[in-house]
Design goal:
Blueprint (H helix, E strand, L loop, with lengths): L5 E4 L6 E6 L6 H15 L9 E5 L4 H6 L21 H14 L3 E8 L7 E3 L5 H8 L5 E4 L1 H5 L9 H7 L3 E9 L3 H17 L14 E10 L4 E3 L7 E3 L4 E5 L4 E3 L4 E4 L10 E8 L1
Parallel strand pairs: 2-3, 2-4, 4-7, 5-6, 6-8
Antiparallel strand pairs: 1-3, 5-7, 8-14, 9-11, 10-13, 11-12, 13-14
The structure holds zinc ion.
């Protein structure tokens, strides 16, 4: 199992930072941004001042080639040190887990499937380094609490973030916007540069900070029967206490428990799967 990995070593003491692109094969933004920055390092237009910078532009090569999300299963649910991987993504997951184990900071770049999707960062687990790296980004929404809402769920979450946490590493998962938008590649590009600038691994300063919205996830709603969302909600739309969010065909409604945000709404969710998530700003 070969993955193309690019390493730029300053030979000076410092953190080892790993950037991951195209964990999902149909998400080109991170990969393209990484290719551009690898080019700059390779041509010595920029060089790390300290530590080691590593890039894996395409973490799921076969899916990337076919422009599909995955081959056998969701790679971002199988990142762990498998004893006996049984399919393509599990083999990749084992390899990527070994790279995460050997790094200090991991930045995993993704994109999402709706044209209006706003960029946001998943910053899981309490981690001062992660908080500092979030502040260095020009991305408005920081979402926390994903592992907590799944902690009592039987759904296994062997994501890059989970793997990093297992090995005591810092990890941000950055959703850069819609798969097809050229802006998503820009978001990924600046996320990489601002990370390295914030860590003082490149000369200069990160972009001026923006006012960010910190959102704590509260719960996810499983679609129990057939029904529909009350509106064509988009990710990170504001919702109000008392608002009807969704209705089942049997007449029952799901009422919003408090002012906050609806996240990752899936109008086409199958019964017994995640329909949408709710959170509130901190
Ligand atoms: Zn993704």
């Amino acid at each position: 199992m070969m993955l193309n990995k690019y390493t730029f070593d300053s030979k000076i003491d410092g953190p080892k930072v790993l950037f991951l692109g195209a964990i999902h094969g149909n998400e080109p933004a991170g990969a393209q941004a990484i290719f551009k920055i690898v080019e700059k390092f390779a041509s010595h237009a920029i060089s790390p001042l300290k530590g080691i910078v590593e890039f894996i532009p395409v973490c799921n090569p076969l899916a990337f080639e076919k422009n599909v999300r995955q081959i056998d299963e969701n790679l971002n649910r199988v990142i762990k040190d498998w004893d006996a991987p049984t399919n393509y993504e599990q083999q990749l997951g084992k390899k990527i887990a070994s790279y995460i184990k050997n790094s200090d900071i991991i930045i995993d770049l993704h994109s999402s499937h709706c044209p209006q999707d706003k960029p946001f960062i998943f910053s899981d687990y309490p981690d001062k380094t992660a908080d500092k790296l979030c502040l260095a980004q020009t991305i408005q929404y920081i979402v926390k609490g994903w592992p907590e809402i799944y902690s009592s769920s039987p759904i296994a979450d062997f994501s890059t973030g989970n793997c990093a946490h297992y090995y005591n590493k810092t990890c941000l998962t950055i959703e850069c916007g819609w798969h097809q938008s050229p802006q998503s590649e820009q978001v990924a590009y600046y996320a990489i540069m601002n990370t390295l600038l914030s860590l003082q691994m490149l000369e200069g300063f990160p972009a001026q900070s923006i006012e960010q919205t910190l959102i704590m996830m509260d719960c996810f709603i499983i679609k129990q029967f057939s029904g529909k969302l009350a509106q064509s909600y988009r990710h990170l739309d504001k919702v109000s206490k008392g608002e009807i969010l969704a209705s089942y065909d049997n007449g029952k409604s799901i009422i919003c428990p408090q002012d906050g945000f609806i996240m990752l709404p899936n109008a086409d969710a199958a019964i017994n799967t995640e329909w949408f998530y709710l959170g509130h700003s901190l």
